[in-house]
Design brief:
The protein has five helices and two strands; from the N terminus they run H-H-E-E-H-H-H. A two-stranded antiparallel ribbon has the order 1-2. The longest helix is centred in the middle third of the chain and has 47 residues. With 200 residues, it is mainly α.
Length: 200
């Protein structure tokens, strides 16, 4: 018959299926790789734990649990102190507004809550107490954040399965803040080295 030699080509459909299959393969490969890395980290951790004796194993587990509880407690305490610090900021801002608006603040007194007790102080004394309390809160919060990083680093070292075998927690331990003046000085130095201002 006339249509006996007619062949229908499905090359486009096959190509589309091929692309989808390639994409699926890539996703499967990535998933398999991530799963294998996690399994490898868990295996290494398990082998290290098997090498420990019962007493050492119990001591490590106890230390891990204690570190976890301390980290959660320190984070909660840091949140509470930060809330108090924000309240102090609002109080200081209100006192500064009174000074900028030209009010005679020399004879004014304000109620301040210190250690769960309300005490009325003169304007200057109130501001001094709040600023002193603010400095103390800044130091305590900074100390808590430093302790949290150190405890988290120790926790991840004792139990590498927490980070999937990654050493990212050690990188965070090496992070240091840089002052804006230091960055500006480096940018100015770079600008002078190139004979012009930075960004030109």
């Amino acid at each position: 018959a006339k249509w006996d030699s007619l062949v229908v080509s499905d090359s486009e459909e096959n190509n589309g299926d091929s692309d989808d299959e390639d994409t699926d393969d890539d996703v499967d490969n990535a998933t398999t790789l991530a799963a294998s890395e996690g399994a490898a980290a868990a295996t290494i951790c398990a082998r290290k734990q098997q090498a420990l004796g019962p007493a050492e194993m119990l001591q490590r587990i106890t230390r891990v649990e204690k570190l976890g509880e301390e980290i959660l407690t320190d984070r909660q305490q840091a949140v509470e102190l930060d809330r108090r610090r924000n309240t102090n900021r609002e109080a200081l801002a209100a006192l500064r507004r009174m000074e900028k608006q030209g009010h005679s603040v020399s004879g004014q007194k304000h109620w301040a809550c210190m250690a769960s007790t309300f005490i009325r102080h003169p304007h200057a004394r109130t501001r001094q107490l709040i600023e002193t309390d603010q400095q103390r809160l800044d130091a305590e919060i900074e100390q808590l954040h430093k302790g949290i990083k150190e405890k988290t680093n120790e926790l991840c070292t004792l139990d590498p399965s927490i980070t999937g075998g990654s050493d990212v927690h050690r990188s965070f331990m090496q992070l240091k803040g840089v002052a804006g003046s230091t960055i500006a000085a480096e940018m100015l130095g770079a600008g002078h080295a190139y004979g012009g201002r930075p960004g030109m």
